[in-house]
Specification:
- Helix content is 55%, strand content 5%.
- By secondary structure, it is mainly α.
- A two-stranded antiparallel sheet has the order 1-2.
- The longest helix has 11 residues, at 43-53.
- It is globular and about 40 Å long.
- The relative contact order is 0.23.
Length: 73
């Protein structure tokens, strides 16, 4: 499973609010909802977030193995 928990840590570290993302950078509320609920995002969207936050992908998302993924390995 992909978790976007690092995204919120990065926002806090960079002192950027979700309000600022919406109003200054044009990020939609639905995108923030997708992040909050760990829904899939396109690589284009992840690239955009990295540019806005001047960060690496690892500062936006992390892979967390779940039971299903463990059995595949």
């Amino acid at each position: 499973m992909i978790s976007y928990e690092p995204f919120y840590k990065t926002l806090k570290e960079k002192q950027i609010s979700t309000y600022k993302l919406i109003h200054q950078y044009g990020i939609s509320r639905s995108l923030l909802d997708r992040l909050k609920h760990n829904k899939p995002l396109s690589t284009v969207t992840i690239d955009d977030l990295c540019k806005i936050l001047s960060c690496r992908v690892e500062e936006i998302l992390v892979f967390v193995p779940d039971e299903e993924n463990r059995s595949i390995q």
